[in-house]
Design a protein that fits this description.
α9 crosses α15. This protein folds into two domains: 222 residues, Cytochrome Bc1 Complex, Chain A, domain 1, CATH 3.30.830.10; 177 residues, Metalloenzyme, LuxS/M16 peptidase-like (Cytochrome Bc1 Complex, Chain A, domain 1, 2-Layer Sandwich), CATH 3.30.830.10. The chain is 40% helix and 20% strand. The protein has a seven-stranded mixed beta sheet with strand order 1-2-3-9-4-8-7, with helices on both faces. By secondary structure, it is an alpha+beta fold.
């Protein structure tokens, strides 16, 4: 097992790759009692066209199947309620699906070995049949209908749908009524055996645990199972244009205050000499510096009562694109969009501004290291985005320069955007 100090955080990262390909990341933290375990597959809503394990031809499965599969993995052949199992041992169990991964998780200080073994067992023993699939379709239909009444979700999903032509990130993670009702057990087993292969999965554990003992528990559990070797997963690539599908849209919903969102589709392909990690971080820092809660624009918009609260910004990365979305409650969406575009059109950053912002980033990273949930999530996100864990995050930030930031600014464009306004129903 490899042990690596995490720069300036007084923590160590333990790493081991098992014979079956499963990767394990452990950060012990002995000054607390709690333990947080996440068990993830690099499989999310966007992975709907791929070559299944053991086959040669690419297939397309129904949208929303990753989220559907997450739900069905909890189903046990013996009828055992896995949530009750963890609850009876004083632990919280949950799961979530994103565009890029699916994660099963539990937290709690007691019955750690038993809980860890059971987490791996139930995730690795799928049980699908026509009856429980039909039942789940009804449950997710209700979830889709409820999400259609959520204005913020409608805003966020609408912006993505209006931005992308081909890439499946335009489709809601949960899928559509039509796609969900076309799922069958053959689809589920096909996706499960391809993407839930140990070589496509990883475990992250943070908290009061012994790394050596934990690796021994995981090894013994995994050695009980025989898996076919995987030559890697081939997923369809998409040739996505820079322009957005639709420039603007206005809809009505049962809201009191209008809600507005703008999404920028930013091609960073010109940034040749920077690593993906640096590109990602510089763009995230830039967006937070100019539009985040510490930004001058956010303060001005609140003081002038153009927005009701802070701007809600999100930056994600899809192939060669950074996707920046900005959402707010506002009675004046046109002015909001105008000010955001103006801010991003001629960006200038001073040394003083950059230095102050770096201190905030470093401070946030140090605080993050004290929270086993934030720490675990940071490690998971690094693995999904870069296929490695950032060991020297603080050192990296310290060495980031305004020259490189300006290089990024000069080689990206905020010209391709789409807007969506939700007005109160008349």
């Amino acid at each position: 097992m490899k042990k690596t100090p995490l720069y300036k955080l007084d923590l160590d990262l333990y790493y081991e790759k098992l014979d079956n390909g499963l990767e394990v990341y452990i950060v012990p933290k002995h000054n607390i009692n709690d333990i947080y375990v996440t068990y993830s597959t690099k499989y999310g809503s966007i992975h709907n066209e791929f070559i299944p394990l053991g086959e040669k031809k690419m297939v397309k499965v129904p949208d929303g199947i990753a989220h559907f599969l997450e739900h069905k993995v909890f189903e046990q052949a013996d009828g055992l309620d896995v949530f009750d199992f963890f609850s009876q041992r004083g632990s919280d169990l949950n799961a979530n699906t994103s565009n890029f991964k699916t994660t099963y998780l539990f937290s709690g200080p007691d019955f750690y070995e038993e809980n860890l073994n059971f987490l791996m067992d139930f995730v690795q023993e799928p049980y699908f049949n026509d009856k429980n699939i039909k039942k789940e379709q009804g449950i997710i239909e209700q979830e889709i209908n409820m999400s259609n009444d959520n204005p913020y979700r409608k805003l966020y999903e609408g912006l993505y749908y209006n931005s992308f032509y081909k890439h499946p990130i335009k489709i809601p993670i949960i899928g559509t009524l039509k796609s969900i009702n076309s799922i069958n057990k053959e689809h589920l087993y096909q996706c499960y055996h391809t993407f839930y292969h140990p070589s496509n999965m990883f475990i992250v554990i943070t908290g009061n645990i012994d790394p050596e003992k934990t690796i021994d528990i995981i090894n013994k559990n995994q050695n009980k199972r025989k898996v076919e070797p995987s030559a890697g997963i081939k997923i369809k690539k998409y040739d996505e244009p820079d322009k957005v599908v639709k420039k603007s849209e206005i809809i009505e919903m049962d809201v009191t205050v209008p809600k507005a969102g703008i999404l920028f589709k930013i091609n960073f392909d010109k940034l040749k000499y920077l690593s993906l990690k640096k590109i990602s971080n510089y763009i995230i820092y830039l967006c937070n510096l100019k539009l985040g809660t510490v930004s001058l624009l956010n303060e001005e918009l609140r003081d002038e009562e153009i927005v009701k609260d802070n701007l809600n910004i999100d930056v994600s990365f899809v192939d060669k694109y950074a996707v920046l979305s900005v959402i707010a409650d506002t009675d004046n969406p046109k002015e909001l969009f105008k000010r955001i575009r103006k801010t991003l059109k001629s960006i200038m950053i001073t040394e003083e501004e950059w230095s102050r912002f770096k201190k905030i980033i470093i401070s946030n990273n140090i605080r993050m290291s004290d929270n086993i949930f934030s720490l675990n999530n940071r490690i998971m996100n690094d693995i999904i985005k870069y296929n490695e864990v950032t060991i020297n995050e603080l050192k990296d930030v310290e060495e980031y320069t305004i020259e490189e930031m300006n290089y990024v600014i000069q080689n990206i464009s905020f010209e391709n955007d789409t807007t969506l306004i939700i007005n109160p129903s008349k």
